[in-house]
Amino acid sequence: xxxxxxxxxxxxxAYVGCYGNPWIATPALDALxxxxxxFDRHFADRADADGAxxxxxxxxxxxxxSPHRESSADATADLxxxxxxxxxxxCLIVDDSRPAEVGLEHNGDEVHRAAxxxxxxxxxxxxxxxxxxxxxxxxxxxxxALLPPWDTPEEFVAPYFQEEPADDEDVEGEEVxxxxxxxxxxxxxxxxxxxxxxxxxxxxxxxxxxxxWLDDGIGxxxxxxxxxxxxxxxxVVLTADSGLALGEHGYVGPGCPHTHAEAxxxxxxxxxxxxxxxxxxxxxxxxxxxxAPTLADVFDVELPSAQGCTLLPLVYGEVExxxxxxxxxxxxxxxxxxxxxxxQWAFMLPLPSGPPRLYVQPDDRWEATNVVQHHLELVEGLExxxxxxxxxxxxxxxLEPPPLPQTESGDQERHGxxxx
Length: 420
Description:
By secondary structure, this protein is an alpha/beta fold. The chain has helices at residues 27-34, 49-58, 79-86, 117-131, 154-157, 197-227, 261-264, 291-298, 312-315, 376-394, 411-414, and strands spanning 2-8, 37-43, 89-95, 110-114, 137-143, 168-169, 175-176, 190-191, 234-240, 245-246, 251-253, 265-266, 268-271, 281-287, 326-332, 335-341, 345-351, 357-360. α4 (117-131) packs parallel to α6 (197-227).
């Protein structure tokens, strides 16, 4: 088996056409989705780059309040090490333009560092040419072009800033001509005014340009698969380490301190050799810890300490569910926020203090209406389950997730009220 993994930093699903965005040009990603299997409810274990890299290596949950580890304590649980023992050649292309504290690069057969998006694409293209004559291999490509500061070429940004601004009225009712919006290269990182519509539009347009640039580069790289005459033999995986907050809940940038969907909802597309199962969309809940066990399954090796599950039964329609819920965590200073998601609910719990939040899913897509007060019994049960899950994830060995509260599954609970 030959596998190409495209791991994008900071790709928010709301800005990709195959995930429902109607106004951003992402033809390469959309074509990849059309020829593959799209996971609609894939979530981060941790809303940061370091957590994703730890999880991608060993298939385990790494809570944000736990010390960073460069690899699992059990060496057999490290994906790259297991693949090398199996004879799978591993090549890692690292985007050093935005370095991550925890990297993917240790122990790979080949590791190439690149200082720009263009250099990453060149290194990946050259690697595909070198690998074309080998047997089993894994090529992992790290892409950081979406992280600010944005150095997107003008041709990709300009289309999102062409419209003339509408006139407005001042307090006396007279028309005031508004200044045209301009792209942002260095957006404000951290807390922002969630009601600043002008900033939000600038962020949207600037990020949209970066997404189009990313899509163009990925499209050119995927064309290389046909050039090396191996496209029909290669499995392509596209995912992200985390989303990127763009002011939706009063925060901008990576390292988001909350677990809302803009930070934790991740794209995941698996394009199988020969376009097998093309067009399938998976509605089941999945998360980042499932990727390493899936790749292990693809290469027919084992990750005995993994806590995630292989996704192949979902890919082939053999099962409809792997997890009754998924959990995400985020850290900001000494504060940690946890989120437990089911198909019906998104429950968020800030610690050490802070009011819990509950959102109806998928109806409240933007997680704007907190309905905690209408479901107090359910919230207590979800909090118990979430706390038990976090503790279970810290223990060595396979994970035994605690059950959901019985009140979670009823339609009466789901539609019992809405409010703020």
